[in-house]
Each structure stands twice: as C-alpha cells, then as structure tokens.
Amino acid sequence: MLLIHCPHCDETLPEAEFTYAGQAHVIRPGNPSDQTDEQWEEFLFLRANPKGPHYERWRHFHGCGRFFNAVRDTVTDRFLTTYRAGAPRPDLSSLTERLK
Fold it and tell me: Which of 21, 1, 3, 18 has the alpha carbon at shortest distance from 79?
C-alpha cells in the first residue's frame, strides 16, 4: 500500500484517500483559439513518462478535496515529496541524494 502525505492536511494516509490527476506543471495555452491541431495534440495527449522521479498532480479526494503536487519515483513507486499546487518544483538533485 502506498502512503501519501497531503501538504494541506499535514497527514500521511493510504493511497485510497487520493486520486491521481496527471502530470504536474503542464502549461495551458494562453489563447486556445490560436493553437494549431498539432499544438492541441501535444497539450492534450503527450506527457512525460520518465523512468525515475516524476512530477505528478494528486487530489485528496476523501479528505480536504484539494489538489497538490508530488514527486514520485516511477521505478520504486516511492513518493519523494509532496508540495502545494502553485509552489515551485523542488530540486530533484536534493531529493535523489536522500535516496542514496
């Protein structure tokens, strides 16, 4: 069972409390009507699929209901950190150093 820390509630709870909401830090188009079909395809469907640390968006569905971001290692399925939506991305080098 995965344990996820909600940065809003300051609680670490089972994964069943949360809902995955996709890749974090996806920049939405400023003026949607100016986008080409190829740009829409990239925005809607193409996402990173890294082996290792990955920035993700989660929602504490059965708790506060708020969205937050997380860095999860896709190899080990371990959460390296969670942080509030809108906060800057944490430095991956400092997070991965703790794993060594």
Answer: 3
Pairing of strands 67-73, 53-59: antiparallel
Question: Between 49 and 96, whose confidence is greater?
Answer: 49
**Residue-range domain boundaries for the chain:** 3-97
CATH class of 3-97: alpha beta
Instruction: For residue 22, give the amino acid letter.
Output: G
Q: Do the beta carbons of residue 78 and residue 98 sit within 8 Å?
A: no
Global pTM? 0.85
Task: Please state whether 94 falls in left (phi above 0), alpha (psi between -120 and 50) or beta.
Answer: alpha
